[in-house]
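From the shared-data thread, chain only:
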Amino acid sequence: MSDPTTSAPAPARAGWEFTAAFLLLRLFLGLRTLLAGVDKFEAGGLYSHANYLKNMDRMATGITGASFLPLWMTKLFAGSLGYVLLALGVALLLGLKTRVSLVLMGLFYVALAFGLMAVQEDQGVAWIAIYMGLVAGALLLVRHDRFALWPDRRE
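Structure, as tokens:
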């Protein structure tokens, strides 16, 4: 017979704290990304597709004027910016393939940071670096995702 006082401890199990930490990161990053996308459609307190086109044209022209990036490239990126932010924000909030959503969000933030680096917008790059750290942290905790509509395949 084995002595219960000398038996090996049970393997450590991830507590609810990891699930809560991931959920908080997922909610914050999802809301931040969604609202950044919504903001691209605003001008004068009104939201519309016409405002989006005007805002993104102004952004693309400004980036091209202040950097080495060609106008066709900045227009292509700016034209998709709001829609990509909306889609990634919704996907993360709802928990649609969370790992994939986080990786795509991280790659998109790298692309945003590159554009800001090209125009030497150091403050914007610093903000994006913070989001990148949060995305990296969320990726480390994603195995604790318990509230997803379309969960990733578990290992």
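The chain is about 70% helix and 5% strand.
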